[in-house]
Design goal:
The complex is a heterodimer.
Chain A: H1 25-57
Chain B: H1 2-52, H2 58-86, H3 103-110, H4 126-147, H5 154-176, H6 182-187, H7 195-213, H8 234-253, H9 280-302, H10 305-320, H11 328-351, H12 360-378, H13 395-422, H14 430-435, H15 437-441
Classes of the chains: A mainly alpha, B mainly alpha.
Chain lengths: 58, 459
């Protein structure tokens, strides 16, 4: 989770420069996926509770 | 003398480097700017869907549309972009003749941990191409979204949108919108503006979902006759449709491969995604003529502004597959014929108890198919790829493509929505539908003053 190169200048730097390149991509991919799954589960629960509340009222 | 030549050579080298840098930033900017133009498509779909919903469902329709766009982005990053490069030759993952496909190539350039899937000083194209393709993907989900308004569960819809936007359409694009695509190399399939791989796929996927979702409460009477369920704002819908058309210029712009880069097909000539030569100028003739033909054709048979604007969209979709080669009056006629037929297709579905709230199948599914077949009827004999001894366009090739697109869209749409239906995740309960989705699950109000949301089923 840092620069993928060790340097004190941009001179001579080429290729991929994104943070964590070649080391921790999997962690961030997993975190993205986990965030989406969590959001969808919470959204699903919200819908379920909202529909059940209407059914109780009717 | 030697000094003069050396100085001249140095000056030429500097000029060449400068010209190359200018061309690269032009190419990068070209696709970069296609993206906000395509975002207009989504602004349009948002307004279109909300306007086509009754006021009691306006915001729920908006949420559905916005969320579909957002959900497709990460899944397209995770897998969709890889699918495009992995499967052109079929499901085997083998490399095609152009050497730009197969599992190995896809993993090198498009796996989410690849060096090219983020800021890379040696790569000035992957991100903007990825962005343009994501916008194509989001368009497929928006096409689906409009047809299902006012009764689908949000989470069920999200699943369908991800399946369509991050898997199905991009598999179709790999097969028919890629220079190594088997439909192109073996059948001469031609689909410059994505009539098949975006519109037809999304339209047929939508049809499969509609069969399982069922009609809105109050849409049909016990005798089978249909009621008109008017949206709460026709002006919003019309403006939305015009925004979609404005965004279409970005969509078509992104279908062009600009010249002069290492990944370009030519150093001097614009090209289709297949490498065949084309010009923006020629495409512009045909897009405008198809647009006009579509409006006039739809007006002739309906007099309805909703169908006129859908006809504008339908006119362009009808011409999309051959926008690079049509004679412009022919583009007008193809748009006119397609848009004239479109309302009858919508009525045909309605008479069979299918409630497509915005005519998505008629506009995208049917006219996407018409667009593919139109190339087979009237644009036979064009080389389908760059290079020697390549397949040429033919009616049979376009027919094979249309059947493939129809099945690839319909079957997954039907199967995934059936699974959601069986598990109770497809449709909201009827009492919720009657009360209105906004009141039940949206923590804000579309119109807090002045407009009272109707709760009667068929208003």
């Amino acid at each position: 989770m840092e620069a993928p190169f060790e340097a004190n200048t941009w001179d001579g730097i080429t290729g991929a420069i994104f943070t964590g390149y070649g080391s921790v991509e999997g962690v961030w991919l997993g975190l993205c996926l986990a965030a989406i799954v969590a959001a969808v589960i919470l959204g699903w629960r919200h819908e379920k509770h909202a529909y059940e509340a209407v059914k109780k009222k009717v | 003398m030697e000094t003069d030549i050396s100085t001249l050579a140095e000056a030429v080298a500097q000029l060449q480097a400068s010209a190359a840098a200018t061309n690269t930033i032009f190419a990068e900017t070209y696709y970069f700017l296609s993206i906000p133009l395509m975002v207009l498509i989504h602004a349009g779909f948002l307004a279109y869907e909300m306007g086509a919903s009754r006021s009691k469902n306006a915001l729920a329709s908006g949420i559905k549309n916005i969320l579909a766009f957002a959900m497709i982005v990460p899944f397209f990053y995770f897998i969709g972009w890889w699918v495009y490069w992995a499967f052109p030759t079929g499901l085997t993952g083998s490399e095609g003749a152009m050497g730009i496909s197969g599992f190995g190539y896809a993993t090198d350039i498009a796996a989410p941990w690849s060096a090219f899937m983020g800021p890379n000083l040696d790569d000035k194209s992957s991100g903007v191409f990825f962005g343009a393709f994501v916008l194509f993907a989001a368009t497929t989900a928006s096409i689906l979204s409009g047809a299902l308004i006012e009764r689908i569960r949000l989470t069920g819809f999200v699943v369908l949108a991800i399946v369509l936007g991050a898997f199905i359409w991009i598999l179709a694009a790999a097969w028919g919108w890629h220079a190594d695509g088997w439909l192109v190399t073996e059948w001469g399939y031609h689909d410059f503006g994505a009539a098949g791989v975006v519109h037809m796929i999304a339209g047929f996927f939508t049809l499969g979902v509609l069969l399982n979702l069922g009609p809105r409460v109050g849409k049909f009477n016990p005798d089978g006759s249909a009621n008109q369920i008017a949206g709460h704002s026709m002006p919003m819908t019309l403006i939305g449709l015009m925004l979609i058309i404005a965004g279409f210029w970005g969509f078509l712009m992104a279908c062009v491969i600009v010249p002069g880069e290492a990944w370009s097909w030519s150093t001097t000539m614009g090209a289709t995604i297949y490498g065949t030569p084309m010009t923006l100028s020629g495409m512009t003739f045909n897009t405008i003529m198809g647009f006009a033909g579509g409006i006039i054709g739809a007006w002739m048979v309906t007099r309805d502004p909703f169908w006129m604007m859908s006809g504008a969209l339908g006119g362009i979709i009808s011409c999309a597959a051959g926008l690079d080669v049509w004679y412009p009056p022919m583009a007008f006629a193809i748009g006119f014929i397609g848009a004239s037929a479109m309302p009858f297709v919508a009525s045909f579905l309605e008479r069979r108890g299918i409630d497509d709230a915005v005519g998505a199948f008629a506009v995208h599914g049917f006219l996407g198919m018409w667009g593919l077949l139109a190339v087979g009827i009237a644009a036979q004999g064009y080389p389908a790829l760059a290079g020697e001894d390549v397949a040429t366009t033919s009616f049979l090739g376009q027919l094979v493509g249309a059947v493939t697109m129809g099945l690839l869209g319909f079957v997954p749409g039907y199967v995934v929505s059936l699974i959601l239906k069986v598990t109770g995740q497809l449709r909201v309960p009827p009492e919720v539908e009657i009360l209105g989705l906004d009141a039940v699950k949206v923590p804000s109000r579309a119109y807090p003053e002045g407009i009272n949301a109707s709760v009667s089923p068929a208003e």
